[in-house]
Amino acid sequence: MALDSDHHDPQPPGLNSSPQRRLDSSRGVRLLAPTQTGTAHRSALAATTFLDEPTLNSLTDCCLAVHDIALMAPSHTVHQNHEDILWQLAADAQALALWAHNALSAFRDTHRDTSAGASAPPPFAARPTRLPSPPVTVPASSPAPDDPTARPKYSAATIAPTRTEPRTSQRKTPDVASTTTTPPKHVVIRFLTSLRNQRRPHPSHVRDALNKALADKNHGGDWVSSIHYSRDNQLILHPHSSRTVAHLIDRRRTIDATLRPLLCPDDHCVIQFDSGGLWSKLVIHRAPLPIWDDDSTPQKRFTNLISKLNHEGKYSRDSFRSARLLCPRDEGERRMRNSSRFSPQYASILLCIQDDDTAARLLREGISVQGQHCRVSTYCHRRVTQP
After folding, report:
1. 320, β-bridge pairs
2. What's the pLDDT tens digit per position in 302-354?
3. Domain boundaries defined on the chain
4. Alpha helical stretches, state H, 139-244
5. Which position has the higher pLDDT, 22 or 53?
6. What gap in Å lies between CA 60 and CA 229, rounded to an integer?
7. Backbone phi, psi, residue 255, to 5°
8. What's the rounded Cα separation, in Å, for the pair 59 and 55?
9. Is 15 helix (H, G, I), strand (E, B) or coil?
């Protein structure tokens, strides 16, 4: 049976059952249905090891449990044998945050739909009369339980600061901004390898070649107005004023066929079109490198490895952005050449994808690379201090 927090409404002895109290403890209209039901729900429940089933069946209790853990985490001493469990915690926290943001988006949609009727009286007008306790009792970033009044076993000093009306009003501003986001003004053409060591024809030659290939009867050759290269040596196209980024992406096959012989004739991988948005930077830990073939090159072997990652990770080719070994280039090539059937070489891989659901799944489940199951975590940039 799927979890339904609307049905979990505990009534401890002595709780006032007046109509006003029942109104305050109501969960209101259901905003988001569970996405894990049936066999998936039963499998997840069977895999739990610590919390009891009544707690897991209550969204309120689950939120309070996570809140307690967040409060106490800085009080723990970290030992060497905690590494694996902390990696698991990081992956679980990432997956939980993605789910929570998805759930909160349902509230934001409801706020937008009801903004026209803001003059109507709020359903819980009596709540502001509750006096807040000193703010030092709970950090400002702590999550709030969905119904504090239905849990008398917690003191008022703990529950009162978790009221969320001020946060709701502060959250409306970014919502408005998100609805008025300007469309992208350029598209980044990402080759799997950097263009740093590749030839760079004159910008006007590249632009004219693209416009000639893209020309049609309606707009002629007015497709690309200019180009330039990014700091990581990728090509950026600026559409003509009569065109948009979407128009260029729709003609990606023609652009691909035109740019490949001009810029990177030895690169056999698929060119990626990036028009902006948020990425997920993931680290695939200790991935075995392909067995070396004397007739190949390090770049071809890595390209083949990335193609297999696409298949094993089950993510869309369009969501893939970039990938590289997390080691110096010379070291990566050395490991590639030394990877053999009886002496495999390993390296961590930085994988960038633009798909939140896939990122959460990879963080939760890991990925298979060259026959080995590898752990996946979020990428954290490390600054190297020069001596």
Report:
1. 353
2. 888 888 887 888 777 667 777 889 999 889 999 999 999 999 999 999 998 87
3. 52-70+87-112+124-181, 187-274, 280-378
4. 156-159, 165-179, 203-214
5. 53
6. 50
7. -65, -40
8. 8
9. coil
CA distance 206 to 208: 6
Other CB atoms within a 10 A radius of the CB of residue 367 amount to 22
Give the pairing of strands 272-274 and 346-353.
Answer: unpaired
Predicted pLDDT at 263: 80
C-alpha–C-alpha distance, residues 214 and 290, integer Å: 38
Assign domain 280-378 to its CATH superfamily.
Answer: RRM (RNA recognition motif) domain (3.30.70.330)
For residue 192, with 0-12 CB atoms within 10 Å meaning exposed, 13-18 middle and 19 or more buried, which class applies? buried
**Is residue 353 classed exposed, middle or buried when 0-12, 13-18 and 19+ CB atoms within 10 A define those classes?**
buried
Euclidean distance between CA atoms 327 and 331, whole angstroms: 6
For the beta carbon of residue 207, count every other beta carbon within 10 angstroms.
20
What's the pLDDT tens digit per position in 8-20? 444 444 444 444 3
CA 278 vs CA 353, 355, 360: distances in Å: 9, 9, 14
Percent of the chain with pLDDT over 90: 15
346 beta partners: 288
Per residue in 209-240, pLDDT tens? 999 999 877 667 789 999 988 877 788 899 98
**Predicted local distance difference test score (pLDDT) of residue 267:** 55
Burial 237-264 (b: 16+ CB within 10 A, else e): bbbbeebbbeebbebbeebeebbbebbb
CA distance 76 to 31: 37
| CA 241 to chain CA centroid, nearest Å | 33
